Amino acid sequence: MSKTLRTHIKKITEMKLFLPILSLLLVLIINVIKTPNFFNITITNGVFYGYIIDIINRSSELVILAVGMTLVVAASGGADISVGAVSAVSGAVIIFILGGGETSTDFYHAPYILGIAAAAFVGGLCGVWNGFLVAKMKIQPMVATLILFTAGRGIAQLITGGQILYLRVDHYKGLGGFIPGVPLPSPVFVAILVVALTYLLLKKTPIGLYIESVGINAKASRLVGLNPVFIQFLSYVYSGLCAGIAGLIITSRVYSIDANNAGLNMELDAILAVALGGNKLSGGKFSLIGSVIGAITIQTLTTTLYAMKVSADQLPVYKAIVVVIIVALQSVELKRMVQNLRAKFLTNTTKKEAV
Amino acid sequence: MEQKGNVLLQMRHIDKHFPGVVALLDVDFTLRQGEIHALMGENGAGKSTLIKVLTGVEEFEKGKITLEGTRGSFINRSPQEAQERGISTVYQEVNLCENLSVAENIFIGREPKKNGMIDWKQINRKSEELLNRLDIHIDVTKALENYSIALQQMVAIARAVDISAKVLILDEPTSSLDELEVEKLFDLMRKLKNEGMGIVFVTHFLEQVYEVCDRITVLRNGELVGEFEIDKLPRVQLVAKMMGKDFDDLAKIKHNKEKNNEKEEQLIVEAKQIEHIGTIKSFSMNIHSHEVVGLAGLLGSGRSELARALYGADKPDSGMLKFNGEVIKVHAPIDAMKAGMGYLPENRKEEGIFADVSVRENIMIALQVKKGLFKLYTKKEQEEFTDRYIDVLKIKTADRETPVKQLSGGNQQKVILGRWLLTNPDFLILDEPTRGIDVGTKTEIQKLVLKLASEGKAIMFISSEIEEMLRTCVKMIVLRDREMVGTLNENELSQENIMEMIAGGEEHE
């Protein structure tokens, strides 16, 4: 009996997503202990409220960025650190187009669909630039994307004229808040859509295998007929697109664009989400769902700390501590060290007994 | 033979499993004082695993290890622990710091101190004493990188010996040495042996075993075949013991070769003045169906480069390529694949396998790429294809979903072969398909090559072993200094002719 149980446990612990899920559960359990009403969901005015709802709502942008980041990491073994800035650029472009460049307006100056198209286009364009530098010019991903990381916010400032632009249209707020008659916040649906589309793309075409092949061994991938440059390029374009969509949500939430703060530091959270999802940052084999779980874990952590009345300035410190613990949990090397220590301890005690 | 020394190290009933594979099963190993003991076996026989278990790199599940002078059995948890017990290993690649001096390398991590400072004088003096005792006469204050790999290896051995090694393990130390250097290394080994040390010698080279060893332990498929006195085990028998079967393959192969010629031959590859500047000078050749064409030449003569230019791995700068009667433009490997070529690259690890993904994905990828991005093979089709080639090529793997990195070198090579066979190419380029592969798989691959040719494929076979190509090829193209220098037809094929052409001198064209 205990033996079958043990093999069951072994099977579960050896699953690819075991650690990411365990990390998420851990954070959730701490929440339940600290905040007993954590899982409570109430209905007010026909919409759901509660910590859980808040977490999945707030994690939407991060999930979307993490999806793009996962592919970039897998294909190129490097991260796209420009995604936060790119989402600010695309956000600036949307508000500028829809608001007609005015500092504050309460009607659309251009069709909504044009705004969405512009967001996707600008994000994609930034991705093209990054992809060109990394895949074609063979510049280190960190360095290549550093360009837009620093220049991006400047470009966004140029577009907004250095001001915060407001777009006080209820329709525009819809995507960042609630659509009348729908009980769940809209960003959740966008995130689900992005994840589902990407998942289908990976499931129904061999692109996932191509990306992994290029990430594991670019030389070999070329010899089996792939074009590693193009595939890496595509991954950056996809990441740019995701950043563009994230920019759309970010600006919809606050119906405005603040080029200095939109998507600030989100690139780091996105990279962390990929790592927490059990993905190697050196590229190759990846798990999309792992990254999604990683993104939700990070947001849960943030919400938790707010719920525990930790101030925003101190937040990073606590976050760092928890991240260290979670990353340590997933470290193979640490596991080995612990095993060795235990074995040493055991042999020492038996030696002492023998004496 | 010297008199039998006392037993120094004993490993008894060692068991070790890797996921889905038995690596070691009930293996015994005995090392005596003052002997050089060869550990032999094909790839995947368990040699390296046994060494790793002994030195604490890998854990093992069952068994006992005892060492003379140590009470009871012990388990090494790390290579450091093994070294403390007197078991040192020197690997093929020297694990020393090239830019430090010889003396520093010998004493790194255990520098003698004087008033809290490192006592350089003593380090240099002691290093010199140590090396002199071992008959190595070099300047110990010079950086290690000034000396040849062989000398570096000897320094590594000296270091190991100085850290009180009772047991010295040499893991393929001669792979990158030339003959003279090997001799020097052997002298050192003999000297240490006479001082009473037990030396474990892991190697692929039969001659070296017979030159320097006293005893041989043979492993096969993770099991002990036996321990033998060197003078009681002739070479042929050793090979038979390693392979576990008799050598009648050669005859069969010859027979096949004769049958090939009866078939009707079609022109598959017609290359005219193809050139890739800097790697291969302009060459022209015809290759027919049912034909195995060998490329002979020294390392760096342009063998692989010629193949790469044909396949588009390096895009040719000029020339014309006709394939199956049609002119094709090869800008990248995908163009060659679509025309009907396949290419097994020279360097399996760097250009062949995708280590982290499964056997299935490694086999499927070329066919999938050829078919296109929007036409994914169904799970069922993929499994069917994979199982077929696991079966046909007898790939030893726990499962089709096993990551390919867990397979032995020979089986990884078979996976890549399977990948290309699945695309059903008319022309298959095999660049060193048998390198670093055990003898059994080697013969299997050679037979497979002939079988493919008899089925009508054109094959280009590149190998450093002329003998292997003589067995399989009907025609041989010889290269020298990045240039194709001639062709030898079947009736001219002989070791002497090839050597002569490789060496240059008389023109054969």
Structure description:
The complex is a heterodimer of chains A (355) and B (509). In chain A, a hairpin with a 2-residue loop joins strand 1 (42-44) and strand 2. The two termini of chain A are 37 Å apart. Chain A has helices at residues 2-13, 18-34, 51-58, 60-76, 83-98, 112-136, 141-160, 170-173, 186-204, 207-216, 218-223, 228-254, 266-276, 288-307, 315-330, 332-354; strands at residues 42-44, 47-49, 104-105, 165-167, 256-257. Chain A has 355 residues and is mainly α. The mean pLDDT of chain A is 90. By secondary structure, chain B is α/β, with parallel strands linked by helices. Chain B has 18 helices and 21 strands. Chain B has a six-stranded mixed sheet, with helices on both faces. A six-stranded mixed sheet of chain B has the order 17-18-19-14-20-21, with helices on both faces. The longest helix of chain B is centred in the middle third of the chain and has 16 residues, at 179-194. Chain B is globular and about 80 Å long. Classes of the chains: A mainly alpha (355), B alpha/beta (509). The interface between A and B is medium-sized, with 25 and 31 residues.
